[in-house]
Specification:
- With 124 residues, the protein is mainly beta.
- The chain is 0% helix and 50% strand.
- Strands 2, 4, 5, 6, 9, 10 and 11 form a 7-stranded mixed sheet that branches.
Length: 124
Amino acid sequence: EVQLVESGGGLVQAGGSLRLSCAASGFTFEDYAIAWFRASLGNEREVISCISRTDGKTYYQQPAKGRFTMSSDSAKNTVYLQMNSLKPEDTGVYYCAAPKGRSCPNSWAWYEYWGQGTQVTVSS
């Protein structure tokens, strides 16, 4: 059974940092792309970053560029999202997700496996 378990969310002041973790099990970690998504009130779930297993690169969408860093530890089957210079608009539930494949789809609809999410709240 595929499982993705996020942790590390919480309440932080604007300008602060958080590090999210996503522990994966039930599949060969290196065979699937893996991504971080954010769901915030009134907005569709959006991809933040994704590690492609096709080319080994990490891709970031605009909210994350320059502030967030996604990394992967294959020995621990865990990915991380280091979030710095947090803003109130970063508030939301953060999910890790994996598609059934090695590349990174842009739409959440193409992701097969999801964690339960972890809440991030950034106060102003």
